[in-house]
Amino acid sequence: MSGSTELVVIVKQRPRRAPSPLEMLRSAVIGAASTVALSVDRVVSVTVNETLDRVVPPVLAAVLDRLDLTRLVIERVDLTRVVQATLDQMDLTQLVLDRVDVDRIVDKADLERIIDRLPLVDLANYIVDEVDLPRIIRESTGGIATDAMNAVRIQSIGVDQMMTRITDAMLLRRKARVTTAPGEAVQSGVVQEDEAL
Predict the structure, then answer these.
(1) What's the CA gap between 87 and 80, in Å, rounded?
(2) CA distance to 118, 122, 123, 129, 130, per residue, from 126 (Å)
(3) How far apart are CA 197 and CA 173, in angstroms?
(4) Helix 133-170 crosses helix 120-131 at what angle (to 10 degrees)?
(5) Which residues contact 74 (CB under 8 A, 6 or more apart)?
(6) What pLDDT score does 3 carry?
(7) Are 192 and 186 in contact (CB under 8 A)?
(8) Helix and strand element counts for the chain (H, E)
(9) How far apart are CA 140 and CA 98, in angstroms?
(10) Residue 153 — pLDDT band, cuts 50, 70, 90?
């Protein structure tokens, strides 16, 4: 060991001395007291629990029989809050769909009484006002009238052309006459009188 010194500490343990009779007695008393306390605690717990199980239900039933619970609930419970909290946690639509037989309700409903309660005249007026029935009638009859007039015009043109051909055949005309109005384009196959001369 080159120049370093080591310090060695030796710790001496005191020899264990034997406990005195008083200490042994004290230890024994404490151990016995603990054992007795645990035993007493177990016995007391079991006895108390059994006694409570026998005594509490009939006593509670007797107390509840003397109380007007409905009145107590009405006076002391905020039913609006309870109902609101309950409804907030429920899906009422799904609940109705799952649990309510709507067809059965409709079958049992008195439809005549329901219809008697409806303001049918007001409903009819509202529908007429919203739908604008006069405008629909005007437009639909106007369209029908236009279609009818167009059909009559087309038929009269066809009749006019047929009458022209019959007249030309009876008068032994060989060339077709001009049937267009002044200023209109000459239809194909129609020869004007000036060209015919």
Answers:
(1) 10
(2) 13, 6, 5, 5, 6
(3) 13
(4) 50
(5) none
(6) 56
(7) yes
(8) 9, 0
(9) 47
(10) confident
Q: What are phi and psi of 168, to 5 degrees?
A: -60, -40
Q: What are phi and psi of 103, to 5 degrees?
A: -60, -40
pTM of the model: 0.25
φ and ψ at residue 89, rounded to 5 degrees? -90, -5
d(CA 170, CA 167): 5
DSSP string, 155-184: HHHHHHHHHHHHHHHHTT--SPPP-SPTTS
The dihedral sign for the CA sequence 61, 67, 71, 72: negative
Residue 188 confidence class, pLDDT cut points 50, 70, 90 = very low
| pLDDT of amino acid 180 | 65
Contacts of 180 (CB under 8 A, 6+ apart): 186, 187, 190
Q: Which two tokens stand for residue 110?
A: 């008195």
